[in-house]
């Protein structure tokens, strides 16, 4: 199955819960399962599986256009914190994908 077909299938599989945005569907490394939350169109959180490791992950998309500099700095702090902390009750940062 090629990547285009995988994206189509992911979109069809998740259509019952919520529509997957194009930026989430284009992540070939992850199989997106269901929407967990977020305030569209600014943030989305999806349950997914990392294809090569089989690990269950949460994929969070944040739309950066139109947000304040202060909020961008807060997001960078969140990334730094998640990258450094190791605690059983705090999700581990697995990957960061920046898309302009």
Automatic annotation (TrEMBL):
Q: Which SUPFAM superfamilies match?
A: Protein kinase-like (PK-like)
Q: What is this protein called?
A: Protein kinase domain-containing protein
Q: Which residues form the Protein kinase domain?
A: 31-100
Q: Quote the InterPro entries the UniProt record gives.
A: Atg1-like, Kinase-like_dom_sf, Prot_kinase_dom
Among Gene3D superfamilies, the record links this protein to:
Phosphorylase Kinase, domain 1
List, alphabetically, the PANTHER family matched: SERINE/THREONINE-PROTEIN KINASE UNC-51-RELATED, SERINE_THREONINE-PROTEIN KINASE ATG1T
Q: Which PROSITE patterns match?
A: PROTEIN_KINASE_DOM
Q: Which residues form a coiled coil?
A: none
């Amino acid at each position: 199955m090629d990547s285009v077909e995988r994206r189509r299938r992911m979109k069809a599989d998740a259509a019952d819960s919520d529509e997957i945005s194009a930026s989430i569907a284009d992540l070939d490394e992850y199989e997106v399962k269901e929407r967990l939350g977020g305030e569209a169109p600014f943030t989305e959180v999806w349950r997914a599986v990392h294809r090569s490791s089989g690990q269950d992950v949460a994929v969070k998309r944040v739309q950066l256009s139109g947000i304040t500099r202060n909020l961008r700095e807060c997001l960078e702090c969140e990334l730094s914190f998640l990258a450094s902390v190791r605690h059983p009750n705090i999700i581990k940062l697995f990957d960061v994908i920046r898309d302009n």
